[in-house]
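Model the whole thing, not chain by chain.
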Amino acid sequence: MATTTSRATTSRTTSPELVDSLVELSFAVQAILTRASAHFDLSVTQLRLLGILRDRTPPMTAIAEHLGLDRSSVTGLVDRAERRGLVARTAATDDARVTLVRTTPAGRAVMKKLGTVITSEIGALCRHLTDADLDLLVRVAGSVLDTFPT
Amino acid sequence: MATTTSRATTSRTTSPELVDSLVELSFAVQAILTRASAHFDLSVTQLRLLGILRDRTPPMTAIAEHLGLDRSSVTGLVDRAERRGLVARTAATDDARVTLVRTTPAGRAVMKKLGTVITSEIGALCRHLTDADLDLLVRVAGSVLDTFPT
DNA sequence: TATTGTTATACTCTATAACTATA
DNA sequence: TATAGTTATAGAGTATAACAATA
């Protein structure tokens, strides 16, 4: 399966090293996010929710699409965040079916603190990289994400 | 925040771009793992369990340490995997308290297929990178992981 | 009829606390 | 006493199916 005798010029084999590197790196970053969020009694999903609401006030359905979740899952997610005073539901004025979600001041305060912690931990993760490697990492990661169908 | 007038020579500020790049990249990889695992009715946690057992037959406690979970969580994890015929518990001969976990042929077959899918998807994620950038990514990711206290 | 959001239900994942068996 | 593993319990996260309200 790894060896293709005749293949298009645009195709190439993917090395096991690349797969392992990216997968392990993603688990390392996720571990940082999990630990930092837990410090504020949040799950990574709650962190992502607050991240989405940082500069938006989207309908429930838009949140579901962003997170790749079913709408019913987002109902519970927002329920729990709202119960803790981190977000608030508001009715849309133009369409009575739509519920908009926004962060509360408490939610924004938590995100600000969390951002500081996460930045520090990511910095520690990369502490042995040269400045040149850091720049390249940002460029390459950005290049990957730009062409990734989210 | 970006300008620090007095700081140690070993310290440096971490750019928001670096944090965003690594976090988003990790979510992209996790999304691939989630989708690929779901294709075989597995969670990412079950995938990690099978990954650990690829070349080991560890005690329950070792699995818990590897995954950063409580031992009781691993009990349920292995229960569900065993119920599906993917792993099997065996008694250790030297210490009657210890339970060893191994993959079954069915578990190894699933992992083989999953590996193919994941490799393909990671390859697609990186399809726009040059060969030089791929090498860089592997080298930098490896460098980060080598110095990361897992 | 189609869309938005919720509810009911069920399963996985996870932790804490208490327990059993063994060392 | 200490360690390995399980059980009981509780809660978060997720999906499917059915539903109400609105478009």
